[in-house]
Task: structure prediction
Amino acid sequence: MGSGTRKMGIEKREKIAGLLLVSPWIVGFLLFGLFPMGVSGYLTFVKWDFLRDPQWVGLSNFQEVFRNPIFYTALKNTLIITFGSSLIYLVFGVIIAAMLAKDYLGSNVFRAIIFLPSLVIGTALAMMMQPVFGNGKYGLLNQVLNLLGLPYQSWLTEPGQAVWVIVAMSFWFLGSGVIIYLAGIKGIDPSYFEAAMIDGANGLQQFYKVTIPLLTPVLLFQSIMGIIGGLQVFDLALTLASEFKTGGMGNENSLATLVFYLYTLAFRDYNMGSAAVVGWVIFIVSLLLSLVIFRLSKKFQLFGEEESK
Result:
């Protein structure tokens, strides 16, 4: 009885110690995760402008958002940025990482050169790019087009072009993804590549048959992070739109994104209810896209397992 009681006491103390260790995370999740989600969910059903007391309006906020064409413009731009930037990170990130994976003279220098630009924050990058993509003769890129005999382009004012400027800026942040891919490639057992060489596989075949399948977990992680990052694009759009000095989201909302639209509703129009609806749309879209990636990844993981055997 004595030994059994002591054993139960030890197990109880271990459980208490475990709860104490995870309690900071639990408290943090409740305060900064679950509680804000609950408040945001409540705000979707009320009208509140910071000054007056919230008034219950039911589904009016949802109707207001979903009937506004600006919402669909912001959604379209956000999805273009999300898929465009994710594709850049995946394709170019993996290729550059594979090129930098081999150790040769100066390889560390090239890795640093690729990584350093990603340390620049989005606001600073957008400020640097404003004169590059300026309209008319004032834009550096338009001056290059003029030298080539090509017409000027309205990079930031044309609704069909402005969003692609943000997608192009994704190349600037490529370095952080390259480092993660590089770590994944370095973690692959060299014996796989040696076996592929013995079987007569060239460099391209090794990349497709060995590197890509065994890099599937990293590709999955980067895909989800790219989706989350793309759906949260805000600072680039806000800074580029500030050039117009209208307080809006660019010419004809050419730079509108979901987060930018949320910001405009909340802190320009003081419509917290509609802003909360947009916030939940961002959450649901990111959740659905992540689930799609998880579903698709199962097929690629099976392919990787078969190829690596």
